[in-house]
Amino acid sequence: MVSFRAGAAAILATTVIALASLTSSTTTAFYIPGLSPNVFHNGDRVPLYVNKIFSKKSPLPYSYADLPFVCAPPKDSKRAWLNLGEVLRGDRISSSDYELIVGKDVKCSVLCLKHVSAESAAMAKDFIADEYSVEWIVDNLPGATRYNQWDGWHDQRLYRAGFPLGKVKWDKSNIHNHVTIRIRYQSQPGPEDGKLILGFEVNPYSIAQGDDSCPDDPLEIGALQVVSDKETDILYTYSVQWIEDKEAEWNSRWDAYLVNTDKDVHRYSIINSIVIMLFLTGLVSIVILKTLKRDIAIYNEEEMKDDQDDGSGWKLLHGDVFRTPSYSSVLCAVLGSGVQVIVMTTSTILFALVGVLNPSYRGGFVSFGLFLFVFAGAFAGYYSARMYKVFKGTSWTKNAIVTATLMPGFLMTIVFLLNLFVWSKNSSNAIPFGTFFALAAMWFGISLPLTLFGAFFGQRKTALEHPGRTNQIPRQIPEPVWYMRPRFIIMVGGLLPFGVIFIELFFILKSICEDQYYYMFGILSFVFVILMVTCVEISIVVVYLQLCDEDYNWWWRSFFASSSSAIYIFLYSVVFFLKQLSIEYFVPGLIYFTNTLMICILYGLLTGTAGFISTYWFIRRIYSAVKID
Fold first, then answer.
1. Are 611 and 562 in contact (CB under 8 A)?
2. Which among 54, 127, 115, 65 has a CA at the least distance from the CA of 95?
3. Percent of the chain, pLDDT > 70?
4. CA 619 to chain centre
5. Calpha distance 472→319 (Å, rounded)
6. Residue 593: which H helix or E strand, with range?
7. Helical residues (DSSP H) of 354-395, grouped into ranges
8. Confidence of residue 125 (pLDDT cuts 50, 70, 90)
9. How does the protein's chain sit in the membrane according to the entry (predicted)?
10. Which of 473, 472, 534 is closest to 500 using CA atoms?
11. Which of 173, 199, 233, 502 could cross-link to 184 by cystine, CB 3.0-4.6 Å?
């Protein structure tokens, strides 16, 4: 009863925190703690970096500097140093010839006159038809398209990262060859007249210009710059405006990118998750209280011992319930990888909550996630070795090596094969050879030794003791009724964890597919906690019902009871693909489903291991309460 009260108190506290988060604002100022702003002065040159083009219709980004129909980067330009996450998400940051001088407005300036071949023009036409957008960077802010939204009191200025490469009008593809760049800044008091950049807006235009001179007024648009399958000359020009903003602050400059327009949906998501969790909590508490009540009655009343044999099916399995399962070594490796994913996911969410991981830290989620996964190998080796000792394994080193290579090796093989298709499309999302070498070095040079290190200490620990002895002859398992068959009960069990997250899953998939920012870390962390509680409870309920049906093969079933929700997530991603995306080609579709498959595998390891660990603890507790002669 004490443990149940503690669990109920924890759930109550979590619910209170969630309800408090619902009433608070969801817009937060994001910046890396301890990072000081760049102060510019009149006459300083502010570098403008070009990154990539991306589209919600295709998961294939391309390096902007490598496009054959735009102005080539400066001859002395160098690629910016990228972290691992930036490389894997397709970033390719280069300097440009755009001159942004602090305090100096430019009415019109020529960037270059580009001769475009027929093949390059056809490429530009295809990119425009696929609605590709351009990402530029100034002072770590992405170039944005501005739009206004009425918030009930006034028009609120909001930003959408990126701006269109071109547009289709009258069945013709028109490339944006002129941009008006607006830099919003805040003046710093003092004799040096410093300026902090608060916003980077880009307004693109398509203008047909016949020579290499800048027109008097490029915004008086007449003919549009059309690209087709014929060679042509394109004149690229730009204007610059510096606008002082006296209302915004530097610490809140990302707010315009991150305003939540779906607050009500997120609220419904949390309420839905809380209802499912409370339903399962009540069900589990009834199971536990009923079990404890029967045990206490059996111990105190001698005449109820006959009822123990007749009515409590799970107690009859004390001699078989801890029998070593089939493929026990594989189970140990899978559980070790699951612990590794749990440590990685929990740590990454915590870093996001304290502000270290945020949209201004480009590639931070992927970089931190990979490094945390590598260093969590020690936890994987430790838990895998402990379970391997429970199953009376004889070679802990072999088990540790299998743990370190089974799931990571499978995922790396998928990534390598997928990368061959991405390479064929010359996308910036293709992983360079050097990055592959770095990933392999992290795997074999850090993760594998740490897994062996953790396994060494795990196998030195005393083996977990089980209550009672295992019979030499396995007990016959009766034929289950249809609703207790393994496949049916596992698939039904996976529905509830999926029901907890499916609303928030929509926003996550949308952010990933459209290369936009996901920043609802508070809601994400709360949904994650509810998901873990739900997985724990559904695994306990499924296994308890199975034991009451006198089926002692629970080891794998406790894992699959909660991890089966990964199947529903994959099916949901198929529906999302058909309803929300407009991907028409084979390679982009292959990338989408392969990445979704890998995410579902990691999710299955996470939820399945959480369900197994809690169920294992629950079974040891209830059988330790049964007095066996």
1. yes
2. 65
3. 85
4. 33
5. 9
6. helix 586-624
7. 364-375, 377-390
8. very high
9. Multi-pass membrane protein
10. 534
11. 199
